[in-house]
Amino acid sequence: MADRNVNPNRRPATSVEEVLEKMRHQIAANLAIDADRLRYHDPGQPSRIGVTGQRWQIHYRGEWRDLPWHFDGPLCVTRELVRQWLGTAEK
Questions:
Q1: Which of 27, 35, 72, 87 is deepest in the core (most CB within 10 A)?
Q2: At a CB cut-off of 8 Å and minimum separation 6, what does 26 contact?
Q3: What confidence score (pLDDT) does residue 91 get?
Q4: What is the mean pLDDT of the chain?
């Protein structure tokens, strides 16, 4: 007897790792950078706004830095926001 409570159209579960990897690639595409410059990581110290634990980081100017915070989430971070939070090159 089939379980009547199971939705036959339900998509298979996606692992957290798969979701994070898709997000990493989407954030990279939004910023027009290589996805290897992004990671979800716990650096062991609080962020600029006091967040602890795992968070998105960007490899920026030779070091790993926290990805700027955006009210609507990391998918909404722009290159301009990165420049505002992390600075621009000295000229």
A1: 27
A2: 75
A3: 44
A4: 85
